[in-house]
Here is the input.
Amino acid sequence: MANTEGRNQTSISEFILLGFGNLPELQLLLFLLFLAIYIMTVAGNILIVVLVVTDQHLHTPMYFFLGNLSCLETCYSSSILPRMLASLLTGDRTISVRTCIMQYYFFSFLAGVECCLLSAMSYDRYLAICKPLHYTALMNGRFCLQLAAGSWINGLLASNIMTSLMSQLSFCGPNEVDHFFCDFAPVKKLSCGDTRLMDLLAFILASIFTLPPFLLTVASYVCIIATILSVPSTTRRQKAFSTCSSHLIVVTLFYGTLMIVYMLPDTDALKVLNKVFSIFYTILTPMVNPLIYSLRNREVKEALKRAVNAFLMCTGTETGSNSRAFVDREKAQRS
Here is the structure.
């Protein structure tokens, strides 16, 4: 009898990402909006990476981590937005189960790396503000490379384990994923089997891989704020806070929206709110990061000015050389 029931269950091969399909009249507007966001995200983060690599003044631990973060944000957006843009433009919301699992693999990998990178950046600011005399010795090039490599390895390990759990799920019923990308929770809902053990394992793994970086970030900023408040001079207090304010804003945006999404009760009434906050940490945060770091950071603004001036000088020199060559040719022809 059990075998007969097993044969009657038809394994599905593709999902339908519902996304924003309940707003058909806004599909074109949403496409243009998300396309603009994607272009700004990629352009802004690549610009940060180029500045960090090419400008000698930005060859410091803080900007080394910022370059890693900007590279990550470019990939992070590219794991979600191109698929969403294609769906909004063509109306085709189907995605194969294998492609869905692959999208979750890259999403969870990059989200895990971001948690660790933000934690490493918080620790860097902690040493710079709370242990300034030991900063250079502690935050040396080798240690920075170890922190960055550890962040990427941690994300890779977490993603492999979580994706292997998702790949064990069997799907034989409804195939509509009520989200705009393949996240673990909405995909798991479509599973035919009992997922209670998987829920427990996912919770344990999420706690192991994301809770320590989060606690280190919180502890770093508690110490930073306490140190800044103990500084008697208002000017020095403002200067100290300005060195970490950009990163504090990014951390608050990322962890704030992430915690809201995964701690909200899983009810039908909150599904729309869940999608809205998911947009914040998957789409909007990667876009605003370059703006926050460039508009609130004097070193980045100065590096950008130097890059623009160098480009204008090169362009002007080349234009001047071409003009002189043209004049020489004209004189030669006349003679």
Residues 19 and 44 are 26 Å apart (CA to CA).
